[in-house]
Amino acid sequence: MKWDPTGYAHHAAFVAELGAPLLELLAPQPGETILDVGCGDGALTAQIAAAGCEVLGIDASPEQVAATRARGLDARALDAQLLEHQPELSRRFHGILSNAALHWMPDQAAVGRGMAYVLRPGGRCAVELGGAGNVARVRAGLFAALEQHGIDPEPRNPWTFPDRDTMAGHLEGAGFAIDMLELFPRPTQLPGDISGWFETFAGVFLDGLPDVRRQAVIASARERLSAELCSAGTWTLDYVRLRFRCHLP
Ligand code: BEZ
Question: Which of 53, 99, 168, 192 is such that its CA lies 20 to 30 A from the CA of 126?
């Protein structure tokens, strides 16, 4: 998926703002080495650096890596599903933070193994992603709009929203001890219209469509969802979070 950092800064600033509890969960200490998995435009990475840590951001998107580097931070284009194959990162980090990134990675078992591979013994992770049921209404509206326009959404679907047991299996299989793992609804207000959310986060469903058709799908999805999700001009999406803290024994 190609990310547009300008659109992201406008439509997705709330993602890092809502990541504050995750920083508390990680509790980064000055001098620690921290990995930010799926760093996006580096907004949370910058907060980890400001806590006095040596932080590396990784993201599969070169555009997002460039945006993170533009903040003066260290970042590298790397898919976290391949972390377990990066010997130079082995046992390098005291901690890992990841916010709203793992649901873009279908092989979450590989991500778990990779996180274990790059942590030092005793190292910890604080992670949040979309969990089972996340954006279910939005997804239903978008899928119906795509089908109405003759597009099969499922082969384009980039999202994997795991339940607690599945994630616990990945983490324990990778050798982690789980300190907490919770799934909870977090209705999320958008800073603007849902059309901007579709452009920023659902572009992969619309890739390759002529602009007129793309706009028609977005308008149809918007129309289907407005009664349920929009009140007095404010859109509130049905986010569900899976949040966990785990550590290596
Ligand atoms: C999420 O953070 O849960 C999310 C964001 C964009 C698309 C799907 C899910």
Answer: 192
